[in-house]
Amino acid sequence: MILLPEEDGKLLRKMEAEVSKETLGAxxxxxxxxxxxxxxSPEEEKAIQVLRRKLEEYGLEPKVLRYEAYITxxxxxxxxxxxxxxxxxxxxxxxxxxxxxxxxxxxxxIYVPPDMIGYQECRGxxxxxxxxxxxxxxxxxxxxxxxLQDMGVAGLIVIEQDDYMPSVCxxxxxxxxxxxxxxxxxxxxxxxPAILHVSNRDGAKLRKMAQGGGMRAHIVxxxxxxxxxxxxxxxxxxxxxxxxxxxxxxxHVDTPPYCMGATDNISGDTAILEVARILNKHKxxxxxxxxxxxxxxxxxxxxxxxxxFNDAFWHxxxxxxxxxxxxxxxxxxxxxxxxEAPYSEVLEAVLESIKDATGITVEHYRxxxxxxxxxxxxxxxxxxxVTTSRPKExxxxxxxxxxxxxxxxxxxxxxxxxxxxxxxxxxKIELNLIWxxxxxxxxxxxxxxxxxxxxxxxxxxxxxxxxIVDFYNFHHLIxxxxxxxxxxxxxxxxxxxxxxxxxxxxxxxxNRCLMWVGRHVNPVAHSDADIANQVTMETFGAQPxxxxxxxxxxxxxxxxxxxxxxxxxxxLVRERNLVEDGFYQANELIRATLGKL
Length: 597
Prior knowledge:
This protein has 597 residues and is α/β, with parallel strands linked by helices. It contains 15 helices and 16 strands.
């Protein structure tokens, strides 16, 4: 239910008119003097200080926090084919922890197709393989890299999957661990000495060469992996009526190695400045607070900044943060439409904000992924980002994100890839949504569509696993999820009456319920960790219900009496209990709140 007071609606129109194309352009130009912004570099520090100074000019009181992050900074990459002929091939390194010496090494090269990883002998060899796999959309990473490592691979040459723009290499990374590692997950970080990336076009040639046999190559992949102290910029615009409750507006400062980062994320950093400038002018009308955070350690730190922030301020986030709104890749050249809206309790507010700011009706939705510093799923916050997008005919399906531009994470992500008129539109969308989250007396949350989508996902997982329905199923879980749909509809009806009635005690009870339903449901829908830890990165956060998604793996086993089946079955029973409890707690809370209202 979204009910923005009339005077706040009028003020929102005024704020939209205050979005300054000239200010955005000047700030963008100044920030573009410094990339590439490797985390821990002097250039990153300079960019942080520019942002700090700008916020001070706008009347805010920013602080630069310092934290330690375990990051890998690629330095040198070189690929030379030695046989059957001598030739150099352009390459970029993965952002990963392994490293050769500066001199590198030479070895035989073999091609291993995706379905043979883990089966084809590769010890001591350089493996030529595909970024594209039959699994997650992010392709080769996680378990597949560890499998090759355990098999003794000497190094990898990875063929870029982008056949839309086959002459580029997108700077990619292993995201096996989210944020700083712990003793329990440090072993998940691959240490293959060299992982090089070649374009789709060059990869096709190398594939033919390797399949012919007798191929050798000399490779260098020199990276620096160590703990570094990084800056993290924060500030706050205090609300007047509910100052302890806040909307977290955030985006990352650092850019990928070798990349100018114009639309990932210099444009986003510029947009956040403009949002802060305008909101602070009208801070006396702000109901809830707006906190702003500029992350570092995003590109080569595996989201080190946002995960550290979640660790350091967990209690405040858990009990006071209304939502995390991530601003990444706005203002991209050719972004004439709007990206699919992410499913969450704020979906309705997202759709209304987009239509209000642009006139565009978004009709396609997506399950949110981990990209964009979504480090708060375990904590329970709704996490989302909204931005414009290139239309289907010019959208490169292999990128994430830069508005779908083919230049994402390449050296071609230059100044001209940002469009100021489109950036103005994006800032208006952002102001609309942030203002609703901060100023609607009743939080603009509605769980109905979100819950319906979760039921669809669970039913699809169950359908794909009917082979084992008598051994393991989601029947009771699906019933709880369907109950959430019905209760969410009733809660929405109650919210409309409470909002119109204006009873402050009832508004407070309702908001507590709206916030805490998400605290119960979001962790089980998006995370496989406890509420104080980070989701594993095996699927990059794109997999719904990661605790129980292995039901399809269980169903794929040949023998139900095998030890492997029983081990996984035991795990899934326990994980299903946790997921069911999330829905149960949410449903009980809604029932109790409806009783009060």
